[in-house]
């Protein structure tokens, strides 16, 4: 049973505040700080409470939300994105151009970037980073997007050409998350995910100095960061799995920031004058992923029954005020979202009819319902979904995994169907591209090498639309949008997943901390400062 808590006072205006927050993020400058960061005579620290630990300190090998959010402080991608418009803007890459045949990307790089180990960044490091991410042993979050790079051709120290095996007009959308590592380090550690707790050298605003597994990750400001030393000297990410304990630590002054604050905790934080709630636009969406590769969930009617069985609106009202229904795979901020598509209605009688049509008039189960814990209220939502499914005859057994274990099992599931249950409460962060292509390429597409492939069911008609979306983007982006909207219709018709909601992104923090989290949920602390 879901326990209702009245905690929606602030959330009524979140849509307006989040929009304003986007403008703040868009205006956060990449220009160096003329003051050289924090005052030298007083060290400043920010402690961030997070729900789970890293799976690795390898910036190119992390696959989970926590990995990406934390390690974005250690190293940078070659481009950045305007938080308001989603437009790509220069960062380490100052210019990029696609050839007329769409087979060569020409990239110009900055000449003043240094890694934490003292290596000067050049085109050699970019080539080594791409080659490593392309290696089949790595299994990182972006490797599948760069498989089309046949050769990284070095023109000189600060100019490269990416020669492609096929047209890839969208490749630079992923370059923000092409996290760079020095060639010397890559030569030392090779092409497996780095498993050591020793710091991996990046070139970001902070360098990792300690990883106490299961407890905390410690960063110190990098004096030679090419955009200027950040104002916060020391950042600590402290692992506190229980949300109530995270909020208690915040109220006690033991931590300064709590990410993934659930709406039910808002009133508690707002009642403390020393704290504030900061909303951010989340690109994350949660679903019930369904393994469609074998019986019984290869039956369409059974998957449709799951969608009709779940009262998503009630789950949102009682657990996640501020969340938004997702009728299919995309969220409204993404290119290709279909505004005319209505979500499945809650209709348990129709769910029972479909269950009988699927050949299960007496129901099925129990089957494992695997839960990824890193989204707000994941366990509570899973319990509610379990109850709704049971009402129509679909019996499940919930198993909650640690985030790193879930991700590992999800990767192994390509070859080992026993890696997780046939039903999984997980989701997708949007990939920070603001483009529906990312979802269809990395989550829905039938390419077996995709490490984030979570639907485990191939549909050729959807894949054909994905291919057309890629082919039309450079010269006919309007057609790309139409194609992705068509794909959304098919995704819903196939009942590819149990479609749930877009997650509200709420942060609780000390009132005198000046920091607006990124719309793409990246905890970039280089933008933070304490009020004078």
Key words describing this protein structure:
532 residues, disordered N terminus, Dipeptide-binding Protein, domain 3, alpha+beta, globular, ABC transporter substrate-binding protein, 14 helices, SBP_5_dom, Peptide/Ni-bd, transport
Task: Describe what is shown at a glance.
The chain folds into 3 domains: 143 residues, Periplasmic binding protein-like II (D-Maltodextrin-Binding Protein, domain 2, 3-Layer(aba) Sandwich), CATH 3.40.190.10; 111 residues, Dipeptide-binding Protein, domain 1, CATH 3.90.76.10; 218 residues, Dipeptide-binding Protein, domain 3. It is built from 14 helices and 21 strands.
Task: Provide an overview of this structure.
The protein is of the alpha+beta class and 532 residues long. The chain folds into three domains: 10-27 and 43-54 and 196-282 and 505-530, 3-Layer(aba) Sandwich (D-Maltodextrin-Binding Protein, domain 2), CATH 3.40.190; 79-189, Alpha-Beta Complex (Dipeptide-binding Protein, domain 1), CATH 3.90.76.10; 285-502, Dipeptide-binding Protein, domain 3 (Roll), CATH 3.10.105.10. It is 27% helix and 21% strand. The protein has 14 helices and 21 strands. The strands form five sheets. Strands 8-9-10-1-11-19-12 form a seven-stranded mixed beta sheet. The chain has a six-stranded mixed beta sheet with strand order 14-18-13-17-15-16. A hairpin with a 2-residue loop joins strand 6 and strand 7. Helix 7 packs antiparallel against helix 9 (348-357), helix 12 packs antiparallel against helix 13 (460-472) and helix 13 packs antiparallel against helix 14. The longest helix has 17 residues, at 477-493. It starts with 13 loop residues before the first helix and ends with a strand. InterPro entries: Peptide/Ni-bd, SBP_5, SBP_5_dom.
């Amino acid at each position: 049973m879901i326990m209702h808590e009245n905690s929606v006072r602030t959330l009524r205006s979140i849509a307006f505040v989040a929009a304003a927050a986007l403008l703040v993020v868009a205006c956060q400058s990449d220009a160096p700080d003329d003051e050289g960061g924090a005052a030298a005579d007083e060290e400043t620290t920010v402690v961030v409470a997070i729900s789970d630990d890293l799976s690795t300190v390898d910036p190119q090998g992390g696959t989970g939300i926590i990995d990406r959010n934390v390690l974005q402080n250690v190293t940078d991608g070659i481009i950045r994105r305007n938080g308001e418009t989603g437009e790509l803007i220069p960062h380490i890459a100052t210019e990029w151009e696609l050839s007329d045949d769409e087979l060569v990307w020409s990239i110009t790089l900055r000449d003043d970037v240094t890694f934490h180990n003292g290596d000067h960044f050049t085109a050699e490091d970019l080539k080594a980073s791409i080659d490593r991410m392309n290696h089949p042993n790595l299994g990182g979050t972006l490797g599948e997007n760069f498989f089309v790079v046949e050769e990284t051709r070095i023109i000189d120290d600060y100019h490269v050409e990416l020669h492609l095996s096929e047209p890839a007009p969208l490749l630079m959308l992923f370059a923000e998350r092409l996290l760079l590592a020095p060639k010397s380090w890559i030569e030392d550690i090779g092409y497996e995910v780095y498993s050591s707790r020793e710091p991996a050298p990046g070139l970001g605003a902070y360098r990792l100095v300690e990883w106490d597994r299961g407890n905390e990750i410690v960063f110190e400001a990098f004096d030679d960061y090419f955009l200027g030393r950040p104002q916060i000297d020391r950042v600590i990410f402290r692992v506190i799995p229980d949300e109530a304990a995270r909020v208690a630590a915040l109220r006690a002054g033991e931590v300064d920031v709590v990410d993934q604050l659930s709406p039910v905790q808002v009133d508690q934080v707002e009642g403390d004058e020393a704290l504030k709630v900061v909303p951010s636009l989340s690109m994350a969406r949660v679903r019930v992923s369904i393994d469609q590769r074998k019986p019984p969930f290869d039956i369409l009617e059974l998957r449709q029954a799951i969608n009709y069985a779940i009262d998503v609106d009630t789950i949102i009202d009682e657990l996640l005020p501020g969340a938004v229904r997702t009728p299919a795979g995309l969220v409204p901020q993404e290119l290709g979202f279909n505004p005319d598509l209505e979500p499945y209605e809650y209709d348990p009688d129709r769910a029972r009819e479909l269950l009988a049509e699927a050949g299960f008039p007496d129901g099925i189960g129990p089957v494992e319902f695997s839960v990824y814990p890193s989204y707000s209220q994941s366990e509570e939502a899973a319990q509610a979904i379990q109850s709704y499914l049971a009402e129509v005859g679909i019996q499940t057994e919930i198993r909650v995994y640690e985030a790193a274990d879930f991700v590992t099992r999800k990767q192994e599931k390509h070859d080992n169907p026993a890696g997780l249950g046939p039903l999984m409460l997980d989701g997708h962060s949007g990939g920070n591209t603001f483009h529906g292509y990312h979802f269809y390429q990395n989550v829905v597409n039938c390419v077996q090498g995709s490490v984030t492939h979570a639907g485990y069911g191939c549909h050729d008609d959807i894949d054909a639309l994905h291919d057309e979306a890629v082919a039309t983007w450079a010269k006919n982006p309007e057609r790309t949008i139409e194609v992705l909207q068509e794909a959304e219709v098919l995704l819903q018709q196939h009942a590819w997943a149990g479609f749930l909601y877009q997650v509200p992104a709420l942060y609780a923090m000390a009132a005198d901390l000046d920091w607006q989290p990124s719309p793409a949920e990246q905890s970039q602390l280089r933008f933070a400062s304490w009020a004078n």
